[in-house]
Write a structure and sequence with these properties.
- Helices cover 36% and strands 18% of the residues.
- The protein is α+β, with helices and mostly antiparallel strands.
- The protein folds into 2 domains: 42 residues, no CATH class; 113 residues, no CATH class.
- Strands 1, 2, 3, 4 and 5 form a 5-stranded antiparallel β-sheet that branches.
- Helix 3 crosses helix 5.
């Protein structure tokens, strides 16, 4: 074995060991190893591979809307599937993937902004995520001629069940 082979083997062997140590829960590591792995300049060189998040997402979001045909007559609530129903062909051909991802991201972003603006909810209505949701809902093809629209963001988790996170104002279309 040549010297270069030994150096490469030591380098990659050390990288594997440090990667394993970095991805272990910190409470199982001695303080000195924690300092080496997490607080040294090596920290940026060691990959983080977390196949299972420490706190996995347990909430499912729902986006619903209703229209007002006249000024005081609301329709029933219509759900916008997030993501839309999948078919077997989507394994090979999925032109709606970008739209579904955009809807998921914008609803998540709106929920995030709700937390930021919880003290000043009127600012939420001026945020880009809120206006994007409103624009998307306003442009959904409708059977009847709607005058106004309103949307609601709900969540569901096994712990809390269904919860209304946000009920928008009624907006002109």
């Amino acid at each position: 074995m040549q010297v270069i082979d030994v150096i490469i083997s030591i380098f990659f062997g050390s990288l594997i060991i440090l990667t394993i140590l970095k991805n272990m829960p910190e409470k199982y590591l001695p303080i000195r190893i924690r300092q080496i792995v997490f607080m040294s300049s090596l920290n940026t060189l060691i990959p983080i591979w977390r196949f299972f998040a420490p706190i996995p997402g347990t909430e499912t979001y729902y986006l619903l809307y209703r229209d007002y045909i006249s000024d005081n007559e609301p329709s029933r609530w219509y759900e916008i599937p997030i993501p839309a129903e999948r078919k077997w062909i989507n394994l090979f051909w999925n032109p709606q993937k970008t739209l579904n991802k955009a809807i998921i991201d914008i609803v998540n972003e709106t929920v995030g902004y709700m937390n930021v603006y919880k003290d000043r909810p009127s600012l939420l209505k001026l945020s880009i995520p809120y206006l994007t949701v409103l624009t998307y809902i306003s442009n959904i093809p409708r059977i009847e001629a709607a005058v106004k629209t309103q949307f609601i963001i709900m969540s569901h988790s096994p712990d809390t069940g269904f919860r209304v996170l946000y009920l928008s104002d009624v907006h002109n279309i």
